[in-house]
């Protein structure tokens, strides 16, 4: 069955993981990027270090760094223990064990926490959540969404997914969502319906394979472009 979570939790990925998850090329890193539901990922911090531009948005940014850190600590063992109980659901290659997973994730989240207050002042972290974003039409070249849509299928209904994807397509020329599996490691049961409804409304939708895979079978992104 795989890992089960009752609610969305703060759990951050690194710049290197984002590049693989979203199949980002060197040229694409130079684009104007929006990271939706970015949470405590270090993507923004590392992008900024390298001179790239990205805005991350997530309601968790309403909280202080200390409050976010406490929330991470409160949920850390829940995730690691859940992974330990479902070892066969994961690909143990670059990440070699549940303990290593915890180390990798904590390193990314600590980098985020060190950057958070400075990034808030610079306007790189904004406390806004899907499905309503405070940005202009096509303000961004690319909108990314990691481990939120489809991951939390049980918590977020089909209509939420459709509204969120339409909103990201309003503010960005292209949307990429990773993965298309739910938290238990199964293809999201609403994926097909979401794709069909978007295509009926004129959106260009495709599922593309990427080089990243930690959840078994979790090596695909959903790419969506707004109607022409």
What key phrases describe this protein's structure?
228 residues, alpha/beta, Rossmann fold, seven-stranded mixed β-sheet, 7 helices, 7 strands, 38% helix, globular
Brief sketch in words of this structure:
With 228 residues, this protein is an alpha/beta fold.
Can you walk through the features of this model?
With about 230 residues, this protein is of the alpha/beta class. It has one domain: 3-Layer(aba) Sandwich (Rossmann fold), CATH 3.40.50. Helices cover about 40% and strands about 15% of the residues. It is globular. The model has no long low-confidence stretch (mean pLDDT about 95). About 40% of the residues are buried. Helix 3 crosses helix 5 and helix 4 packs antiparallel against helix 5. Keywords: Methyltransferase, Transferase.
- How many β-strand stretches? 7
CATH class call: Alpha Beta
Give the overall average pLDDT.
Answer: 93
What is the CA-CA span between the terminal residues? 40 Å
> Largest sheet, described in full?
7 strands, mixed
How many domains in all?
1
* Radius of gyration (Å): 16 Å
Work out the strand percent: 15-25%
Q: Uncertain segments of ≥5 residues (pLDDT<50)?
A: none
CATH topology: Rossmann fold
N-to-C SSE string, H for helix and E for strand:
HHEHEHHEEHEHEE
**Main sheet strand line-up:** 3-2-1-4-5-7-6
Structural class: alpha/beta
Keywords: Methyltransferase, Transferase
Protein name: SAM-dependent methyltransferase
InterPro entries: SAM-dependent_MTases_sf (IPR029063)
GO molecular function, one term: methyltransferase activity
């Amino acid at each position: 069955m795989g890992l089960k979570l009752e609610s969305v939790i703060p759990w951050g990925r690194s710049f290197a993981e984002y590049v693989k998850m979203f199949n980002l090329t060197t040229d694409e890193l130079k684009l104007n990027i929006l990271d939706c539901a970015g949470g405590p990922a270090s993507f923004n911090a590392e992008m900024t270090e390298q001179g790239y531009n990205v805005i991350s948005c997530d309601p968790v940014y309403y909280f202080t760094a200390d409050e976010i850190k406490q929330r991470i600590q409160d949920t850390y063992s829940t995730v690691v223990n859940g992974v330990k109980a479902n070892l066969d659901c994961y690909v143990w290659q670059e990440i070699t064990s549940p303990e290593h997973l915890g180390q990798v994730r904590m390193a990314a989240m600590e980098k985020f926490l060190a950057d958070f207050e400075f990034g808030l002042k610079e306007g790189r972290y904004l406390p806004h959540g899907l499905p309503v974003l405070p940005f202009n039409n096509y303000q961004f070249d690319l909108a990314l969404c990691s481990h939120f849509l489809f991951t939390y299928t049980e918590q977020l209904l089909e209509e939420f997914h459709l509204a969120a994807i339409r909103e990201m397509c309003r503010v960005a020329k292209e949307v990429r969502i990773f993965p298309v599996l739910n938290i238990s490691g199964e293809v999201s049961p609403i994926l097909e319906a979401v794709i069909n409804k978007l295509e009926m409304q004129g959106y260009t939708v495709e599922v593309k394979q990427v080089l990243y895979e930690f959840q078994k079978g979790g090596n695909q992104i959903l790419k969506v472009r707004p109607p022409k």
